[in-house]
Amino acid sequence: MIRVQIPYHLRTLARVEGEVTLEVPAPVTVRSVLDAMEAHYPMLQGTIRDHVTRERRPFLRFFACGEDLSHDSPDAPLPDAIADGREPLLIVGAIAGG
Amino acid sequence: MDKVRVLVGTRKGAFILTSDAARERWQVSGPHFAGWEMYHVKGSPVDPDRIYASQTSGWFGQVLQCSTDGGQTWFQPGASPDEKSAFPPTTASNRFVYDTSETSGKPLTTHQWYDGTQHPWEFKRVWHLEPSPGDVNTVYAGVEDAALFRSTDGGVSWHELAGLRGHGTGPQWQPGAGGMCLHTIIIDPTNPERIYIAISAAGAFRTDDGGQNWKPINKGLVSNFMPNPTGEVGHCVHHIALHPSRPDVLFMQKHWDVMRSDNAGDQWTEVSGNLPTDFGFVIDVHAHEPETLYVVPIKSDSEHFPLDGQLKVYRSRSGGNEWEPLTKGLPQQNCYVNVLRDAMAVDRLDDCGIYFGTTGGQVYVSSNSGDSWRPIVENLPAVLSVEVQTIS
Fold this sequence. Notes:
The complex is a heterodimer of chains A (about 100) and B (about 400). Chain A is α+β, with helices and mostly antiparallel strands. Chain A contains 3 helices and 5 strands. Chain A has a 5-stranded mixed sheet, covered by helices on one side. Chain B is mainly beta. Chain B contains no helices and 29 strands. In chain B, the strands form 8 sheets. In chain B, strands 3-2-1-29 form a 4-stranded antiparallel sheet, with no helix packed on it. In chain B, a hairpin with a 7-residue loop joins strand 13 and strand 14. Chain B is globular. The termini of chain B are close together. The relative contact order of chain B is 0.12. The chains are: A alpha+beta (about 100), B mainly beta (about 400). The interface between A and B is medium-sized, with 26 and 23 residues.
């Protein structure tokens, strides 16, 4: 199972607590993880990436195993530790606003 | 027994204020959607317990919410109200995609940017939701970047009325400081084929065929910041109001100037009269007196607060030009709040109630047509919108 940590407001929207766990077919990439998450939690469609362009929303970033993957290709394979569930994929909101 | 329900959108959630017809004791519910910007919350005229809400965030974008029980519980359209606690709901009710097809409109891909160059249309948020007066499942959405969308399935799916952007002047539209937003939607209560909308900073527009074709209705407006102050489009209209009994008479608070039209917007005349400043955002009409208007003058476009730190509503009982200040119960010193464009509303009780919310988090009510005021709540987040439902 893939583990994903999402921001508080998205957990509220998806009515989940703690991490989201997902079955994701190989290859495990940012795109395949988001596809699986949006299929299971349709209310998150459009909240992490744009409906049309499928681009990451500007104030969100993706981290895995201590690395910022935000500017990597969404089709790049995620680290093995993400793919086998030892580490979560982190979707992090920018520290901004009032 | 009549009661009123006030729907308040704020920078950090929505609040619902309810009272009996006396409007003296209020129950406050909220925050709903805590932490999210709630641009607008509005109930259906057909079924007042059906309420639509625009939930937005700079981080997460647009979400639509709906209630079928007067705001006690909420769900995203597409999720069954009967299964609102079940998961996952199946919805993409936040999918606002501009129509670029060749068949349904004249697709436009750019508008004027702040520096005069052309810029792509990019969806940001829903500013205003206008439920249909005739069908509980039909609702209109005014969005930024400016366009008009309609849903006929209770907000589950949205389709742009592309004729508005496509009528020809779109490339000349430009954003105001708050963004290029379609913030006002008025459906003629006697003719649902006629809809008025307003955009900052493009101006006012009207359709007479249910949204297929549109035309600018800005003759008589003068905006000195424009290269051509009397141009067909480019005016920064802040809000428009209409009395249901006289659907051809419109009142407008423009960036500067208070205006009226007696012919459905074909021609406007200034009615600022003796206002101390004619800059402002809100304007509304008394529920039973179609020539009684309310505005809240704001010092200037550089200083968005009341003159001299004194919060005053101005009332005209003559359809404009002659205005009187209303101050009883409002702060008359050290008050530097703003009242945003969708943050005034009236109820329909015999003694018409007037309501407005401030960026300081106060929501004021007058239950005597404006003669005196008092706060319902005083410390909410900055108020973005106020709507009132009068419920029998």
